[in-house]
User: Fold these one by one.
Assistant:
Number 1:
Amino acid sequence: MTQHFINGRHVAGRSGETMAVLAPATGEEFTRIACGTAEDIDDAVKAARAAYEGAWGRLTAAERGRLIAKLGLKVLDHFDELAKIEAQDTGKPMAQARADIDATARYFEFYGGAADKVHGHIIPFLNGYNVNVIHEPHGVTGHILPWNYPAQMFGRSLTAALAMGNAVVLKPAEEACQTALRLAVLASEVGFPDGAINIVTGRGHEAGAALSAHHGVDFMSFTGSPEVGRMVQHACAEHLIPCTLELGGKSPQIVFDDADFDVAVPIVCKAIVQNTGQTCSAGSRVLVQSHVYDEFMGAVAKEFTKLRAGTPEMDLDCGPVINARQRGRVQSFVDQAREAGIPVIAEGAIAQGVPNGGFYVTPTLFGKVPRGNRLEQEEVFGPVLAAFPFSDEADAIKLANSTEYGLVAAVWTRDGGRQQRVAKKVRAGQVFINGYGAGGGIELPFGGTGKSGHGREKGFAALEEFAVTKTIVHKHG
Ligand code: NAP
Ligand code: MG
């Protein structure tokens, strides 16, 4: 049984209501969490405000940075413990959980080091004036996060806000909030003042909605579905605060006839099965030049057939998906595509001996998928890859930009001119050339366009989001 973490302490929550948390690998309850209410959110926002105006707000940038860096070291000290918690809570294979905790530590290292490197500047203005441009925190930032990479998301969203001096309130996903709660305790242990980091667990439509509507919150950072993102932005509009939205994608891998197939094939597979396809930046569409389509997809199919889903301890290519609802959603995409007669090019398998109650799905590769089909347009959030042929460069760009999303893309070609032309024309916040993903990519600005959302996280770009620019004009004569 876990509790909220407000003002440096575990608290039960005002309603006393709790809900079960299931391990996706077994489908069995392993703990319960407190169901946060608007009152709990209010307590958390008030604690954050007090910290911002008190002990946390008084720290220098260097002092904040040192605390964040210390938390990074603490994460490394608790590496195995955190990886096990994350694997149990999300069902992900241990290797993935370990990679996630490593990336989480990297966020603390990066933002710990960056905290005192956000400098203002001086503008040469009229005679007799001195103009300084400085970057200040918003105050209290609210964070609503999903269940796919809970520890990494804590590192990515909260740490950038903290580095800039904001005090934070987090509503993690009800399905996976155990590492966030543990990280908040570790933060207290390294010396974060009470109230700098607050966590209210529970349901999105209760605790999440209350957080995004709270007038004591100065900025919202949301990661999740477009449907909920829209609600969060509406709530922010009511009290005229800015928000960043990170809402997923339908990211294309564009493979031209001159690509290095040996390099591309395993990466195309990994980009859709990593974290069982539950990655906002999953490479969920593969677009292949027509005259090499059969050759390339034949090689992908060979790899895809070997994919296995199993428990965290089996440590295979995939784990289960997060819950029964998500399994049903993934299965409905697969069933509909089969019924529509879209060919299955290859299937992986669920490993022998997985617990019956776990939420496992079979990795599935479809192609050729008709243009305009649901598999082209909608995010599955599971290990389902859709393949499409294209004729030439113009057709490739048209197909890549055919969805409302625009998060990540990859272009596979040895032609230097084409690399640049396609990278510039494809609608995405990040474009990879002859590769995909970057092991967390802590330093690299990340975010979407269109239905993928707006605003940037990661790297120094996130620090700009979590700050307000102030121009101080001094007429000294
Ligand atoms: P979701 O409902 O958007 O959940 C994201 C977060 O928002 C969770 O913490 C959720 O709380 C909270 N939330 C739900 N309703 C809310 C409301 N009315 N106001 C404020 N916060 C609210 O996403 P999901 O249901 O978990 O997944 C659905 C789909 O979203 C997936 O299939 C996938 O396509 C997409 N998704 C994208 C990402 C990404 O990284 N971009 C991550 C996860 C999911 P609860 O804990 O109650 O859910
Ligand atoms: Mg939900």
Number 2:
Amino acid sequence: MPPSFPRPTAYLEAMLHFTFDNSYARLPDRFYARLGPTPVAAPGLIAVNEGLAARLGLDAAVLAAPEGVAMLAGNATPPGAEPLAQAYAGHQFGNWVPQLGDGRAILLGEIVAPDGARFDLQLKGAGPTPFSRRGDGRAGLGPVIREYLVSEAMHALGVPTTRALAAVTTGEEIQRETPLPGAVLARVATSHLRVGTFQFFAARQDTEALRLLTDQAIARHYPQADGPLGLLHAAVAAQGRLVAQWMALGFIHGVMNTDNAHVGGLTIDYGPCAFMDDYHPARVFSSIDRFGRYAYQNQPQIAVWNMAQLASCLLPLIAPEREAAIEAATEAVNAFAAAYEGAWLDRFRAKIGLTTADEGDADLIQSLLGRMTTLGADFTRTFRGLATGQARAEFTEAEAWDTWATDWQARLAREGRTVADAQALALTVNPAIIPRNHRIEEAIAAALTGDYAPFHRLNAALAAPFTLRDGDEDLTLPPRPEEAVRTTFCGT
Ligand code: AMP
Ligand code: MG
């Protein structure tokens, strides 16, 4: 029998109509440890995501009520939940770690939304688990605010991602370099299946578990995929498209370990991530990434490496004969390049307003990026400026823009389109508002004093990143030199 969990209150039972169907909890015991969240001293609401609550068929007002907040903090368990911590392994910065697992996250269950779509509901920062190693199982207010803002911004930007249903404070202090207020993020995702989940079982030569995991991944992400090889092809293609989207937004994930590589092609784990201000392809933010392994420009190669790890896990399922399995798996991993490059070109063509493909397009785009690198032009403002006619101002030497724009206009003419046509398209794909690091830091600093207004303001602006609302102009500005944040920290 599983240990006893905090019971759902009658209120939650009556008011919150969770429809849980916990397919992961039906997998064998070795996939997880069954346990509930550890209750906290004094739950306090930071935010409930109304749009996401509605998507899930949940009542945001009930979530925001004291009983709902208690549930979001882990002090009450919603009806139908079967809480557990998932087992996984992973390569961290290239080093093999045979056992990681949810050290501070509890999967409450899988919500089946009114339209039948299935979502994990997980509490991150919910207390220690058998996978915590030396950690306390908790999350700090700063990292919770960062993940809420950035994951929801990614969603609004059209990038597949885990999402934030709610954030609450715990009323407890956690010990980091300094004492910090504790918080819990209610994370929602179409699954939490990582490359590292496959690695956990592959390392134990548990072919039966790999088979079950393959079925689960196909059911949840790629219902059209045919068997393990089909899964691999689909995961590789999804990863290629995902990384192309990151690149087209100037996003640096920062910790692309295989335990943070999602088999369904979602962005997961918003620890030391950042959107670039001034463009440089070698940019790194994470203070723990000392060798720049996860620099902006390295992301596609790292994604391939991660996919090769997934492929190697699936080998015993792909074909009985090892040589044949390796050949098929290699071909699948090699398909990353085409998926990534195709998606990268599509995204960047649209960013400069092109609707057709021309052989010289990659060079034209690289020429712009090269000028931006040399002059340190702001990534987001340059592309937004291209759409609004103000890009020239982003270059400290205007000639760099002018000479590029001449080539660009010639290319547009070949397509039979005007600059205005191109700008109209570019306006729909080049955001005005991204979660700039200094703004996130500002929201966190205010939250630490109990003022959540900057968090709510930024969050509201990020929900519509392609529309600049009156009064939000300051959110489009790059940091002043004294505001620039050069490193972010791991979210622990
Ligand atoms: P991350 O760097 O967030 O991807 O986490 C890597 C591993 O460390 C995962 O197994 C996490 O569950 C675990 N971990 C991170 N922070 C904590 C913490 N405060 N307590 C326990 N485990 C943690
Ligand atoms: Mg992680």
